[in-house]
Amino acid sequence: MQNKNIFFKSFLKNPLRTGSIVQSSPILADKMLSKIDFQNANCIVELGGGGGIITKKILKKMHIGCVLLCFEIEPDLAKKLRDIKDPRLIVICDSAENIDIHLKKHGFPKADCIVSGLPLASLPPRTSRTILKSIYAYLATGGQYIQFQYSLTSLRQIKYLFSSVAISFVFLNFPPAFVYVCVKI
Description:
Helix content is 37%, strand content 24%. The protein contains 8 helices and 7 strands. The chain has a 7-stranded mixed sheet with strand order 3-2-1-4-5-7-6, with helices on both faces. Helix 4 links the parallel strand 1 (43-47) and strand 2 (67-71). The protein is globular, with a radius of gyration of 15 Å.
């Protein structure tokens, strides 16, 4: 219950940056992670770790040598994510615009997979564009970028960068969500 309260308070403090009044459902998390090749991933980046629902599921599926760089800009949520005790998890309280800095800091030239719950449609347009360009630039060739959104508003921006985009819909989430699975070719 405390986790839900922290998420709700973060939403009230900055609704456009948090993006939703409630956390993602486990069903949405499972859908997002279903296509990831966890066996061959050495570095996974999560953007917008929130309350940790997706973070915990990623950690359960990762192999022992993989590292998860989890970005969460809200300090209270980042603190809660740090309570997850797993040496493979590195919680970063910084903007997703700075993916490059943190990848380099931890010895990775690129991420094998980037999973995102960032509310692209509610962020300032320039911020969304910068984040998407960073995702594309710092995703390894053949890597996957997986994004959920509550609308198709950002689809055009995503298709501008990624030629391979598959979309599915998860009804059992509040609100229902679209999942984009993009492959960098």
